[in-house]
Design brief:
about 30% strand; elongated; 4-stranded antiparallel β-sheet; Alpha-Beta Plaits
Length: about 100
């Protein structure tokens, strides 16, 4: 009996293992912003993103005006991003998002 229960638990875990990734999807946002010019600008934006639960990674290419954000368990929509960048003194131009 104990052996049957152990096998059932193992089989259940194997069946659920592929689903683990479905719950932990990471979305990568490539955000186009006007006005990025210096590391101080980047720091201000980074502080704002760090206040959002689910944001895991932030990187900025100041030359191209691209902010890369990786997040899970949170959806960053256009209205939210427009306000975030406007409050920081920058102009939000748009985003591309992809699931990793």
């Amino acid at each position: 009996m104990k052996n049957i229960i152990t096998h059932a638990i193992v089989i259940g875990m194997l069946l659920l293992a592929p689903m683990h990734g479905a719950f932990a999807q990471t979305t990568e946002y490539k955000i186009r912003v006007d006005g990025l010019a210096c590391p101080f600008c980047a720091f201000g934006i980074e502080k704002k993103f760090n206040k959002i639960d689910g944001v895991k990674f932030i990187d900025m290419d100041l030359d191209k005006g691209i902010v890369t954000v990786e997040a899970d368990s949170v959806k960053l929509d256009d209205a939210q991003l427009k306000k975030l960048f406007q409050d920081a003194g920058f102009t939000y131009r748009g985003k591309q998002e992809s699931v990793k």
